[in-house]
Amino acid sequence: xxxxxxxxxxxxxxxxxxxxxxxxxxxxxxxxxxxxxxxxxxxxxxxxxxxxxxxxxxxxxxxxxxxxxxxxxxxxxxxxxxxxxxxxxxxxxxxxxxxxxxxxxxxxxxxxxxxxxxxxxxxxxxxxxxxxxxxxxxxxxxxxxxxxxxxxxxxxxxxxxxxxxxxxxxxxxxxxxxxxxxxxxxxxxxxxxxxxxxxxxxxxxxxxxxxxxxxxxxxxxxxxxxxxxxxxxxxxxxxx
Length: 240
What we know:
Layout: H1 2-27, H2 31-36, E1 51-55, E2 63-70, E3 73-77, H3 84-93, E4 99-103, E5 114-117, E6 149-152, E7 178-181, H4 185-189, E8 197-202, E9 205-208, H5 216-225
Parallel strand pairs: 3-5
Antiparallel strand pairs: 1-2, 2-3, 2-6, 4-6, 7-8, 8-9
């Protein structure tokens, strides 16, 4: 009798041991199925320190050709599938409250370099254009005749700091960051800063550039680094 009871307990324990893991596998969603259900054209991983600027000519400070700094190179966005939602995301990245419109067919002139994004589809609430759906970085069938542009509302986001700094991943012997520091009171309140003392990042601080041997070509390069289409003559005596 005792042996019979022992056999019954053994059978029950074996059945329970087979039944329990089966229930667990049924109630736990398979990871593979979740990965397979991810739709194509998913948002791109946010690039580290993605920079956005407006370029082209003629234009005002709150409009222009969209240019993105990615993997050490400036590039543009194709106008395929572009929308006001995309423009809103970009304008907020630039420090404006919203967009009032967008342009196609290289209205502000053709850009250079890569066409970084194509078929961009934003919902409008993304914090960065890099979080919107697209064909992927550098995957495009467009030419620069299709460069997209935006027109932002000329109203700044409260507290947004626009330092006019462009980050670049270059070797240690070259300039990594450059900025303009306004020395006149009205210039400090107006953004973006278009005139001032040229400073470069050095170690943990900023250093001015000596004007000895400085030429209009140097000014042209700095203005281009800061996203401006060209330079204009400045009164050097004012800064002495």
